[in-house]
């Protein structure tokens, strides 16, 4: 079976968040299970593209409105990532350093998709599945089904995975002329509320769609930025498959980015030594439980609630915790969190920015990982934390609900709360501080977490079953 994954991100070429992790790992695990996995992403002017060898395997032009865009498909020659990585390079559009945030992002991703389809038309043998990830690639199922130019591709099954339904890629009908001619009767498929909505169009025209956790599939029917009725209408096509983690990259036993490797057998010493190094780096007292937050500093992640919660915890007469933040995002939240550093020098620190290596040191060295998410389609941080014996403190939503069981349950290992408020975070941290005081319980919980298998082995098979159902 040959599967083509289309995505804006792929670790280690380009990662902004979990999408990069997933597309850098799932295809590798599928390849190990006998699937030929081809990953196609835009070309980015980044280290990975410079340091590795690529060959041009296809060159052509693609029309987008009145622009005729020359493009190249570059293939990484060694397949060292465990799958076949291909990059689409379009001078002036897809050859920049950042993944998102350009004013002409709509044009960038439309051009990416059109160039891909142009190339796909010339395949000597069509793949068995085209698997699209998020809205950046979501026009592909519509175009394969309805564009005259691509009618030969309409028999290839398409799968859409929704990593984040908050972002749908809307653009105005004034840009409709960018797309190749389609049957006028199908134009309504593109529309949602008077704009072209790529995510909605893909949900309507793909053969199957998945969400990155079962609970998130249900949540989208209740709250999805206007698409609720669509998810209800198309529910038979949807399924929820929990993400996995790449244990070649995320494994405390082999991780070369952490000071001391450890396994379940020496977890107490391993955590202690990694914590010692982290406390030294950020000026914390070793004896207090260390809570960390890693992620985008945005409302979706509940980061707006952190300043009030941190203030409440650390202003207590004898604060019992240390808190470390790694992230960037909303400038107002960044500013509030940065200011707290002035007041709580000993027990609080923050690194504003993106640092992959530091994230590994934190998963290994922290005692608890905080995730007070408002929305969390899956969440990978809690899965990494579990693997590193770091107790997740999470709001029970989306994938967090599907992967973290509260310690009060028989086989539980995490701390869960429901209400979205600074008070609930404070209360959850209070429970964690009490738990930390009981060292034998702590050792047991760490071992219990590290025994869990959230690797891709399980979930990769679920995708393969889905592909097989479409053949
Ligand atoms: P999302 O994709 O919504 O941001 P996920 O939990 O799925 O959330 O994945 C986030 C990924 O990005 C994880 O691999 C996490 O470690 C990483 N990450 C997030 N922020 C940072 C940061 N500031 N520095 C390093 N890694 C980060
Ligand atoms: C999105 C979601 C996150 C998920 C990731 C990978 O960015 O916000 O919850 O883990 O995609 O699927």
Description of the structure:
There is one protein chain. This protein has 471 residues and is an alpha/beta fold. The protein folds into two domains: 2-244 and 457-468, Rossmann fold (3-Layer(aba) Sandwich), CATH 3.40.50; 264-453, Rossmann fold. 37% of the residues lie in helices and 20% in strands. It has helices at 18-32, 47-51, 105-121, 139-146, 198-205, 214-222, 228-233, 267-282, 306-314, 331-343, 356-365, 381-387, 398-403, 422-437, 439-451, 456-469; strands at 2-6, 36-42, 54-64, 67-76, 84-89, 129-133, 158-162, 191-192, 195-196, 208-211, 238-240, 290-297, 322-329, 348-352, 368-371, 391-395, 415-417. A nine-stranded mixed sheet has the order 3-4-5-2-1-6-7-10-11, sandwiched between helices. Alpha-D-glucopyranose binds at residues 17-19, 22, 163-164, 212, 243, 376-380, 399.
Task: List its traits.
471 residues, alpha/beta, Rossmann fold, 9-stranded mixed beta sheet, 6-stranded parallel beta sheet, 16 helices, 37% helix, binds adenosine-5'-diphosphate, binds alpha-D-glucopyranose
Unreliable sequence segments = none
**Structural class of the helix and strand makeup?**
alpha/beta
Number of domains: 2
**How large, in whole angstroms, is the Cα Rg?**
23 Å
What is the CATH superfamily classification of the largest domain? Glycogen Phosphorylase B
Compute the separation of the termini in Å: 10 Å
Bound small molecules, deduplicated: adenosine-5'-diphosphate, alpha-D-glucopyranose
Residues in helix, %: 25-40%
Shape: globular
> Major sheet: size, sense and barrel closure?
9 strands, mixed
Strand order of the largest sheet: 3-4-5-2-1-6-7-10-11
Look up the CATH topology of the largest domain: Rossmann fold
- DSSP, total strands: 17
**Number of helices, counting only DSSP H or I runs of 4 residues or more:** 16
The CATH architecture of the largest domain would be 3-Layer(aba) Sandwich
Please report which band the strand proportion falls in: under 5%, 5-15%, 15-25%, 25-35%, 35-45% or over 45%: 15-25%
What kind of assembly state do the chains in view correspond to?
A: single chain
Instruction: Quote the average pLDDT.
Output: 97
Top CATH class of the largest domain: Alpha Beta
């Amino acid at each position: 079976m040959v599967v083509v994954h289309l995505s804006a991100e792929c670790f280690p070429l380009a990662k902004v968040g979990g999408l990069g992790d997933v597309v850098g790992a799932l295809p590798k695990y599928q390849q190990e299970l006998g699937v030929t996995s081809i990953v196609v992403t835009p070309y980015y002017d980044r280290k990975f593209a410079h340091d590795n060898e690529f060959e041009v395997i296809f060159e052509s032009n693609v029309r987008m409105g009145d622009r005729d865009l020359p493009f190249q498909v570059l293939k990484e020659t060694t397949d060292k990532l465990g799958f076949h990585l291909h990059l689409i390079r379009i001078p002036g559009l897809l050859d920049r350093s950042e993944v998102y945030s350009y004013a002409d992002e709509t044009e960038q991703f439309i051009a990416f998709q059109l160039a891909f389809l142009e190339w796909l038309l010339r395949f000597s043998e069509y793949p068995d599945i085209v698997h699209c990830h998020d809205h950046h690639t979501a026009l592909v199922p519509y175009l394969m089904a309805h564009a005259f130019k691509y009618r030969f591709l309409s028999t290839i099954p398409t799968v859409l995975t929704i990593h984040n339904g908050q972002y749908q890629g809307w653009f105005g009908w004034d840009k409709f002329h960018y797309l190749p001619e389609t049957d006028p009767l199908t134009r309504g498929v593109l529309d949602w509320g008077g704009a072209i909505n790529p995510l909605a169009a893909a949900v309507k025209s793909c053969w199957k769609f998945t969400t990155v956790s079962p609970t998130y599939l249900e949540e989208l029917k209740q709250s999805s930025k206007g698409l609720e009725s669509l998810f209800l209408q198309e529910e038979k096509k949807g399924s929820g498959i929990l993400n996995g983690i790449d244990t070649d990259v995320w494994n405390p036993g082999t991780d070369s980015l952490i000071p001391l490797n450890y396994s379940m057998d020496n977890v107490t010493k391993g955590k202690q030594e990694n914590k010692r190094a982290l406390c030294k780096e950020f000026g914390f007292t070793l004896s207090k439980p260390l809570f960390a937050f890693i992620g985008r500093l945005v409302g979706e992640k509940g980061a707006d609630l952190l300043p009030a919660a941190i203030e409440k915890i650390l202003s207590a007469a004898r604060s019992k915790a240390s808190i470390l933040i790694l992230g960037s995002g909303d400038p107002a939240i960044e500013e509030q969190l940065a200011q707290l550093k002035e007041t709580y020098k000993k027990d609080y620190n923050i690194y504003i920015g993106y640092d992959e290596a530091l994230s590994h040191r934190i998963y290994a060295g922290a005692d608890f990982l905080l995730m007070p998410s408002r929305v969390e389609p899956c969440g990978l941080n809690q899965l990494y934390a579990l693997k590193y014996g770091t107790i997740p403190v999470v709001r029970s939503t989306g994938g967090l609900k599907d992967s973290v069981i509260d310690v009060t349950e028989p086989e539980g290992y995490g701390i869960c709360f429901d209400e979205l408020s600074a008070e609930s975070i404070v209360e959850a941290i209070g429970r964690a501080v009490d738990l930390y005081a009981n060292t034998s319980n702590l050792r047991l919980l760490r071992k219990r977490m590290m025994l869990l298998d959230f690797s891709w082995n399980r979930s990769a098979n679920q995708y393969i079953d889905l592909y097989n159902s479409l053949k």
